[in-house]
Every structure is written in structure tokens, then in C-alpha cells.
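dumping this here before i forget
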Amino acid sequence: MKTILDFIRDASPWVAIGLALGILASRSGANKSGRKKQDDNYAIEGMCIGMSFGTALEAARGRNTGLGSSLGMLLGLAAGMCIQKKPKPGR
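structure:
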């Protein structure tokens, strides 16, 4: 059982990186398809906050801060993409 948990801990950052690259690739493909500019959500802000909280939580637990950072960025990106910005006046 310990070897399975070690494998999951070692593979989790790579899975998170793959998911993040997939999200970024789909976003760049949407820009090329003629849709409007995608500055209407909080994806970047969510990534920054998620990375900060993920690193802080893993450091407080005394665990692998790299894992917390990568998973926090992924969760923050997903949450930030779900929240739409209000349009600015004049746009």
C-alpha cells in the first residue's frame, strides 16, 4: 500500500501540469477561432491565489510544497475560469 501512495504522490504534479497545459491549449485555440478576447474571467488571479494557498497549506503540514503549489494552481485556475468579470463601462 505504501508503494501505491508513493506513486500517487510522485505522479500528482505531472498530472496537474498535464491538465494545466490542456486548459491553456484549449484557451489559446478559442482565441484563434474568432471568439472575443478572453479577459472576461479571473483565471490568472485564481492561479496566483491557489498557488499561494496550496504552498502555505502544504508547508504548514510539513509536506511537499511542490505538490501543494501545482495542485493549488490547477484548482485556482479552474475556479477563476468559472467566475466572470463584470464588463467595464465603455466596452
